[in-house]
Amino acid sequence: EITLGPLPLKDVSLLLKLANNRFSLADRYFITNVAGGHPYLVQLAAYELWETHYKGVKDEKERRQLAGEEIYRKASDIISSTWRYWAPTKRQAFTTICLAHMSVLEKGSEMLESRYFNLDELFKGMRDFRQEISQLRLNGFIMEDSSVPGGWRVCPTAFLWWVADEIVRSVRVETTFENWLQKQEWDGLLTKGEKELLKTTMLSFGELVKDGVNTLVEITSTLKK
Question: Which backbone phi and psi does 79 adopt, to 5 degrees?
Answer without folding.
Answer: -65, -45
